[in-house]
């Protein structure tokens, strides 16, 4: 069985990867209470049906031969190193699973010896888990850019999800901050995982090739790319690589010896705005070009849908009783589910503002952009709008709080 010191190193080293959502708190157990929380080790992820599952999140090795400037595990950083064998990981997964600690595994690795050697070890771990240890739970494997495509395809047949991290949003930044990586090595396996043959019979029918799809992650704020650039890239990847999700990870400084990287972390609110913009791309019919402002960045003050609506006041107000779905989806305060409730309800009766409240429209925001039976109760003044939509005087921008009801709800269900 893997020793505890090794386990601490390998789980600590994995905590920066957000492409499987992670627990981010540390809390000690108190007398008379059950459980504690820590930054690394077991994290939580969400299934498509909204179930929260616990995953063992760890690296196979942090002994990297590459020297990506932003990474804690870079070759030139003086940190404790460890590498686990496939059997050590398998035994750990099975023993944690039997004790009900976890429902699956998220396994990543630094590059040990070579991309092919690392991918082989990752594949072998997943293979042994499935065939020797008969583990039928969830496995998310982080793919290694530059590894042979045969290995990548073989892994896709035994794990649930794979991800290749884009890491930095442009080739220039990649060359500067991760000189041993290159765009082709990252993008080629993503294309392989998106090949048409895997989404047709017999794979599709049997759902035996990556049933949970592929994802990727980008670091935000380590390099100068604008939100417009990041969203364009995101849009492209959703269109061509069949990605389930793009994850955005705010840059956290771990290297103070280089002037190539910012000294302070990227603001969390920027990451949050990018996630909101991502929802607009995937579910609200927006294109990347429409979402950002003239300077190419998202407003930090209000969410991207509100910001877009304020820039396009000539299109509002829309009459909720007659507006088409694509226009309803552009009204701040009307989400995807609310829009479909409106479509159903208005077939039976003319909707008024009370009816909209019952349908869970966020009237505080929506009232400035809609009429109900011709009645308008909002404000058309740009000054009033920006104050109201920013939730106050528009000056007091704060870091995102998960404990404000509206913010928390929107972060969980993506309704904007
Ligand atoms: S390849 Fe780069 S990002 Fe990955 S572990 Fe090694 S140094 Fe870190």
Describe this structure in words.
The chain has 17 helices and nine strands. With 416 residues, it is an alpha/beta fold. The chain folds into two domains: 4-26 and 35-250, Aldolase class I (TIM Barrel), CATH 3.20.20.70; 304-413, no CATH class. Strands 1-2-3-4-5-6-7 form a seven-stranded mixed β-sheet. Strands 8-9 form a two-stranded parallel sheet. The termini are far apart. Residues 21-25 and 392-405 have low confidence and may be disordered. Iron/sulfur cluster is lined by residues 64, 66, 68, 71, 73-74, 110-111, 178.
List the helices and strands and how they pair.
Layout: H1 4-12, E1 41-46, E2 52-59, H2 86-98, E3 104-108, H3 115-131, E4 138-142, H4 149-156, E5 161-163, H5 171-177, H6 183-193, H7 203-206, E6 214-220, H8 227-240, E7 243-250, H9 268-283, H10 288-291, H11 304-311, E8 318-319, H12 325-328, H13 336-348, H14 353-358, H15 363-366, E9 370-371, H16 382-390, H17 405-413
Parallel strand pairs: 2-3, 3-4, 4-5, 5-6, 6-7, 8-9
Antiparallel strand pairs: 1-2
The structure holds iron/sulfur cluster.
The site of iron/sulfur cluster has 9 residues, from loops.
Portion of residues within helices: 25-40%
Mean pLDDT: 86
**So what's the CATH class of the largest domain?**
Alpha Beta
Bound compounds, each kind once, are: iron/sulfur cluster
CATH architecture of the largest domain: Alpha-Beta Barrel
Largest sheet: 7 strands, mixed
Main-sheet strand order equals: 1-2-3-4-5-6-7
Order of helices and strands: HEEHEHEHEHHHEHEHHHEHHHHEHH
Parts with pLDDT < 50 across at least 5 consecutive residues? 21-25, 392-405
């Amino acid at each position: 069985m893997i020793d505890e010191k090794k386990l601490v190193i390998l789980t600590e080293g994995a905590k920066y990867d957000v492409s499987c959502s992670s627990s981010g708190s540390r809390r000690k157990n108190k007398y008379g209470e059950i459980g504690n929380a820590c930054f690394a080790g077991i994290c939580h992820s969400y299934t498509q049906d909204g179930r929260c599952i616990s995953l063992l999140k760890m690296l196979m090795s942090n002994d990297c031969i590459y020297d990506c400037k932003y990474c804690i595990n870079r070759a030139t950083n003086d940190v404790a190193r460890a590498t686990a064998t496939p059997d050590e990981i398998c035994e750990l997964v099975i023993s944690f699973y039997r004790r009900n600690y976890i429902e699956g595994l998220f396994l990543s690795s630094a590059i040990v010896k070579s991309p092919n050697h690392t991918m082989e070890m990752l594949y072998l771990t997943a293979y042994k888990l499935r065939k020797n240890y008969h583990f039928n739970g969830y496995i998310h494997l982080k793919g290694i850019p530059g590894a042979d495509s045969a290995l990548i395809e073989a892994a896709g047949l035994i794990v649930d999800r794979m991800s290749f991290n884009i890491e930095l949003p442009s080739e220039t930044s990649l060359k500067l901050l991760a000189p041993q990586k290159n765009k082709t090595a990252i993008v080629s396996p993503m294309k392989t995982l998106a090949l048409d043959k895997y989404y047709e019979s017999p794979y599709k029918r049997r759902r035996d090739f990556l049933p949970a799809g592929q994802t990727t992650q980008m670091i935000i704020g380590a390099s100068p790319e604008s939100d417009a650039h990041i969203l364009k890239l995101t849009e492209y990847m959703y269109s061509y690589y069949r990605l389930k999700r793009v994850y955005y990870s705010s840059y956290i400084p771990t290297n103070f010896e280089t002037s190539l990287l910012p000294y302070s972390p990227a603001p969390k609110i920027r990451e949050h705005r990018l996630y909101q913009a991502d929802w607009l791309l995937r579910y609200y019919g927006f294109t990347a070009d429409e979402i950002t402002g003239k300077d190419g960045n998202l407003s930090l003050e209000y969410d991207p849908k509100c910001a877009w609506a304020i820039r396009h006041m000539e299109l509002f107000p829309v009459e909720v009783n007659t507006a088409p779905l694509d226009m309803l989806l552009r009204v701040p305060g009307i989400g995807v589910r609310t829009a479909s409730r409106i479509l159903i309800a208005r077939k039976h009766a003319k909707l008024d503002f009370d009816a909209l409240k019952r349908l869970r429209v966020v009237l505080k925001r929506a009232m400035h952009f809609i009429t109900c039976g011709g009645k308008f109760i909002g404000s058309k003044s740009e000054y009033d709008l920006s104050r109201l939509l920013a939730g106050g005087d528009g000056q007091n921008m704060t870091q995102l709080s998960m404990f404000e009801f509206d913010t928390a709800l929107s972060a969980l269900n993506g309704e904007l």
